[in-house]
Structures are given as C-alpha cells and as structure tokens.
C-alpha cells in the first residue's frame, strides 16, 4: 500500500520527463541516422555523421567549431574557477555566515544569460560605454581604436560573459561547503600552528576542491552546449557547436537537418562523457 | 611568577558583557577545570587564550611573555573543540602530523611521532584510516593526539567529552587523566559537569555570569563551597540564614558554634551530612518528607521544616515514606560559613 | 578583499547592467563619443511598451512561464517528496532521469522534439511551448525542492498525525506552511527559467508563439542599442520584482535555490 502510494507521487513527473526527454533523444538519434519520414527517407545510415566529421563541406566547420567550443568552455571554466577560489580564499578566514554573499550570488544567477550578454555588448562594444570613457579620457581617437572585445574572433566577449556569470555560481557551490564547518577547520589548523598560507594550501583548498571541481565540470558542460551567448556576442566564424547545430537544423535544405541532428548528438555525447567522468571522479572519493 | 597569567581579562559582544575582569594564574603542569553553567563565558576564556578572539581589555601572559599581540598559530597553545574536527580529506596519520608538517618537521620524525601518539591514545596501527571510519570517541582521541603532537605549552579542552556517550566519556576521562600524569602538560578543561571537574582537575574555577566566583581545590569546592552562588551550583542540603551572637551562629534551625567570621549571615551543610532520626532528640528539628528519590547508593529526601526546605541524603537503611515526620540533626562540625 | 567589499562589489555588478540599459533606453541623440546623453526622452521606451508585438510577446511569455511554473510545482512537489524522503529500488535511476535533462543542452532536446511536436500538432501552440519548457524546468524544481526537503524534519508531520490530523490537514496546516518559502523560491526560479528560455520556444513555437527572448534576439541582430536596452529592461523587470520578493529566502540552505550555471 505504502509502496504503491509512493510511486503515485513520483509517476506523473517521471512519465512526463521520460516521454519528453526520451522521445527527443529517440527522434534526435533516428533523424541523425537519416530517418526522415517526411522526406520519405526511412533508410538508416551514418551519412550525416560522415558528412559532419570528414565531409568536404562540413568537416572543416565541425572541427573548427569543436576546437572553438573547447577553447571557450575551457577558458571560461578555468577563469571563473580561479577567480572563485581566489575570492573564497580571501574571505574564508574571518567569516562565519555567508548570508549576504549567497543572496547577491543568487540574484546574479537569476539574470538571464541573454540579458547579461546584451549588457556586456553595450558596455564593451566599439561604441559602447567603455569606449566612450576611453575617448573622454583621451586613450583613443576613434571607435576602432578600442579593442574588439565582443563579437570578436577569439570569443573574448563570450568568455567574458560566461566568466562574470559563472563566478557567482561557483561561489555558491563553494559557500555550501564552507558554511558547514569551514571556519572550524581553519581555526583548528591555526591553533595547531599553521600560518595563513598553510591554512589555505593544506586546509581550505583540499576542503573546497571536490565541490569546486564538480561545479567546474557542470560549468564546462553548460557552456559547451549553450546557444544564447555565442549567438548574441559571438561571430559567424569561428562559431560554437550549438550555433552550428541550430543553423544547420533551421536550414531550408531539409537534408541539412540530419547533419544538424548529428552535430547536436555528438555535442551531447561529449557533454555526457564529461559529466560521466566527473561523476566517476566523485564516486571514487 | 605563575606560568600562565590572566589579568583583568574583559570581553563583550554587541554590548553584552561576556567576561568581566577575569584573573587566573596557573602554575606549569597544573590541571584546572573551568566550571560553569552554559552561557557563563567559560568557552570564551579559551578562545581568548587560543587567540581565536581578541580580548577587549586585560592581559594574558605565558611564561612572562605577553600573549595578546601573538597570532593564534604562534601561541603554542592548542585548543581542542567539542567536536573533533578531523580534516575529512586527510588520513588519521596526516591529521595527527598536521601541526608538525606546518612546522616543516622531517617526514621520518613525523611518522615516528604519529606512531607514538597513536599508542598513547590507544589507537595503535590506525594510521591509514579515514576520520569517517572512526567512532566518535576514537575521533576525539585522534584530535587529542593531534593537539599533543605539537607539544603545546598549554592544552585547552573545550567540553571535549560532552557530545560522547556516558561510557565512552568515562573512558576518555581516564585517558586524559593518564596523559596529564605522564606528560605534565599545563591544561585547562571547560566543562559544565561538576563530576568531570572533580574527576580530572586538582583545581576548579567556578564561573557564573562572566565572573569567577570561586577558584580553589576541586574537592574543597565540592565539600565546602565558599559562597552562596557556589553552594547553589554544587548543591548543598540547606543554606541556613541567621546571625552571629558572640561566637555562636543563631538560626531557626539551631545554634552552631564554629570558627565563623563575626559578620557571617549564611551557613550551609552538605546533604549527606544531615542526620535523619525517627524520634525527637536534643538538637533536632522536625520536618516532613515531601519528596524522595532513589539515587542508587543513597536515598535523597526533600524535607519541609517550619522555615525552609532541606535536602538530605542517607545510605539505604530504612526507606522512609512521603508524609512521614522525621527529626533532623545538623552536626556542628559539618556546618560551614558562606560569604555573601 | 574583505567580505563586505566582495558583497558590495557583486551588488554593484548587478546594478551596472540595469543602469546601462536605463541610460541607453532613455537617451536621445546619444552619438559616439559623447559621454553623457544630451537629452533624455522616454518616447522610444514607451513606444516599445505600446508596441503590439512586444505586448504579445510579454503576454505569451507570462502565460507560458506562469503555466509552466505552476505545472512544475504541482508535478514536482510529490516527486521530490518521494525521491528525497523515501528509500526504494531504482531511486538512482529516477534521480538520473531528472539530472540528465539539466546537462543535455536545450539545442539538442529542442531539435529532437521539433518533429515530434509537429506530428502531434503541438508545435506553434502555447500548450506545446509550456510542455517543452518542462524539460529544463521540472527537473530543476524536483532537485531544488529535494534539497530543501533534506533540511525538512518530517517529525512535524508525524506529530500532527499522532495528534489526530488527517493527511489532508497535515499537508494543509503543517507541511505547506513549513515548506512555503521553499515552494515559493522553486516557483520563482521555475518562472525565471521558462521566462529566459529562447531555443526551446523558437523550435517549438515555430514563429506562431512569440516570447520576449525572441524579440530580444531579433533586436540584437538589428544592432539598435536603444531598442536592445528597452527590450532588456522590459525583459528583466518582472524577474527583478519576483526576486526582490524572495531575496531574503535565498541566503539559507533550507529555503534557498539549488545553484545552476
């Protein structure tokens, strides 16, 4: 009786998730394998994958998008993790409660990525606020003297948008650990004679490492697959995998759909592999 | 000069005074218990000594050296918390060796000391365990070994046993007492448990509302608390109000001769020293039993005299009934005076 | 950096974008390299507010986000309770089912569902968009309520039950008041995720459903900064309002939201 009831609570949500997520996955795989019933194409083949990975037209595009996605995700993840660790190191010693910090960090998370990217655009573009300030101060004579920081070919704008957006996320993840007994451990270490640097290196970092590393894996996999920010403050070339997948899919040429699906499937596969690695790494500890 | 001196130490948080002009002196190797109800400020004294918090006023000196400006990690005073706080990411051996590693001692020496200390706290061979694999009592022993590893000049124990089961607590009390006998480390233990202070420390300072109201030999504190507040904390059979008439203390419960100061207004007696008789005898007071409680080796009775309530304890001979009238005798030699 | 300074810095970084949007939205004739606008004018912003397209986008976003967060709470609360408070076989599997959609990118799920929803005649309908928004929203609600429930002491419910309260009364008079902050926070965060969703709305809305992010995207490709700023303000105003209402709950682990990138 009790068992049956408990399933009743879980069933609706699970069935809806299974239906939506399962069918999206199933159809995604099927279509990437060339099963396009509306084109009367029901034969399964790996043609789309072949075109994407080694095809004349798409092959180059895929590899450059992959590299660019890796570059942006790694740089943004590494940057935000380092900043977060630095900030936590500087405040962990004296603080007992982190209410204020977790409230502002939460508010940061609530700003949509697209809006954040727009603010960055208005701020950093060649006719943006910073460029105007630079001109007023006399550092530049015309807009094009200002460095291209958004919609640039190195993805600086994308990376900046993500770093500023993910630092609060990682801060919250770190705070969850610190809040438990962080201060007590640091006090014990101090009482045992560890100086400030030793307390950071021998206590705070090992304490924060598990949560910050798994948080960084989440940040990486999010950035690797997200569409909004590169679409808003990126350029057409080089582009990220998510924008490549969606563009192919929205291409009027229906054959390109299978290729768009293939790109999105490969992208998801990489993300799942990364998440899986993170999971295993955590389990082992 | 004493080894450890606290002079006029004062501390308040947000306008609330926690400690008021605390004076304490410890000789090297002494074991002091800081006893007091929760909120009395006893843990704060340890925090000030360890350097975790700064005093508002007053001085602390260790072997003549002023401690106030010395940061916690250079004080050579180690504080053991109520929770063991073993670093979860380190093994038992690495935990114990933590302070030595911070001091950059050679690896070999650390290993050797860790092994010795583990033997000392009766956990030999547990080097490679993780803290999560140990029981609460074992964790607290590792924490103790970790504190001893740095050979602190003063060891501070902040209710280290209060979160453990009674049986393990008694066992660890034994370990702490033995370590003190063997190592003669100057030690202060904070506790709210009178029996713990009696079991461990030769000397007890009683702290109430941020003030030390008694500081003397532990057994003395228990048997003859010097003032009313101390008597209320350690528990007495009766606090008797009266006045001196020449060398005699006169009260409604009788007249007592003793070496009392001329302005004595209160005397007291321990509950086990009160004699209970079935029949009226010279120098007895009638009282009615209003409550009784079995304590294992003794019965405790609450008795109503004409004037006040008295508590008496008696080894089990005859069980007395509630409502029964008995006659109490307060032996002259067991009465002691209380300061106001 | 001291703790206070860090909190102030982060608060400042929250205000800066809003200030930038305000300046761009209300500036008139503000050409490079002027540091400060010559004139202020609310005309352009008001025109955006009156624009039928913007109004429709706002309304449809509102309907979708409100519907989705209500639906997600209704479905998510019982699921989170079972998942967090009960031990059963396959718990890990179900947990995975709610975890996976939070890491698989919405481009991938959206592309996959595009055809399915076309087939089911759900594409281009408000209900279809709501349904597809459940993919990121429902797992988030389940996981965030789950972590609130981990701080929840069920003995309050047991106490009420042994005092004679019926299950319905227990829910209504005990569980609901105790969990209300967590439920409100989860609901607000659900609203926010749905409100910010672009890719899924685009792929399932099929041009028939217009939401605010779509308008923002088309303004962004147009490159008119004051238009972008006006739309951004309209976009985040309701979010700021809602977050302001729940901000005080966000600081504690028992009622706060689970962080997400």
TrEMBL record, chain A:
Its main location: membrane. PROSITE patterns: ABC_TM1 (PS50928). It is found in: Cell membrane; Membrane. Residues 66-278 form the ABC transmembrane type-1 domain. Keywords: Membrane, Transmembrane, Transmembrane helix, Transport. InterPro entries: MetI-like, MetI-like_sf, Sugar_ABC_transporter. It is a multi-pass membrane protein. GO terms for cellular component: plasma membrane. Pfam families: BPD_transp_1. It comes from the Bacteria. One of its GO terms (biological process) is transmembrane transport. The chain crosses the membrane at residues 7-30, 62-88, 109-134, 154-178, 202-227, 260-279. The keyword Transmembrane applies. Belongs to the binding-protein-dependent transport system permease family. PANTHER family: GLUCOSE IMPORT SYSTEM PERMEASE PROTEIN GLCT, TREHALOSE TRANSPORT SYSTEM PERMEASE PROTEIN SUGA. This is Binding-protein-dependent transport systems inner membrane component.
Automatic annotation (TrEMBL), chain B:
Its EC number is 7.6.2.9. GO terms for molecular function: ABC-type ferric iron transporter activity; ABC-type quaternary ammonium compound transporting activity; ATP binding; ATP hydrolysis activity. It comes from Herpetosiphon aurantiacus (strain ATCC 23779 / DSM 785 / 114-95). It is an enzyme of class 7 (translocase). Residues 4-234 form the ABC transporter domain. This is ABC-type quaternary amine transporter. Gene3D superfamilies: Nucleic acid-binding proteins, P-loop containing nucleotide triphosphate hydrolases. Keywords: ATP-binding, Cell membrane, Ion transport, Iron, Iron transport, Membrane, Nucleotide-binding, Transport. PANTHER family: SPERMIDINE/PUTRESCINE IMPORT ATP-BINDING PROTEIN POTA, SPERMIDINE_PUTRESCINE IMPORT ATP-BINDING PROTEIN POTA. GO terms for cellular component: ATP-binding cassette (ABC) transporter complex. Pfam families: ABC_tran (PF00005), TOBE_2 (PF08402).
From TrEMBL, chain C:
One of its GO terms (biological process) is transmembrane transport. The chain crosses the membrane at residues 62-80, 92-117, 123-149, 170-193, 199-220, 227-251. Keywords: Cell inner membrane, Cell membrane, Membrane, Transmembrane, Transmembrane helix, Transport. Coiled coil: none annotated. It comes from the Bacteria. Residues 58-246 form the ABC transmembrane type-1 domain. CDD domains: TM_PBP2 (cd06261). Belongs to the binding-protein-dependent transport system permease family. PANTHER family: INNER MEMBRANE ABC TRANSPORTER PERMEASE PROTEIN YDCV. This is Binding-protein-dependent transport systems inner membrane component. It comes from Herpetosiphon aurantiacus (strain ATCC 23779 / DSM 785 / 114-95).
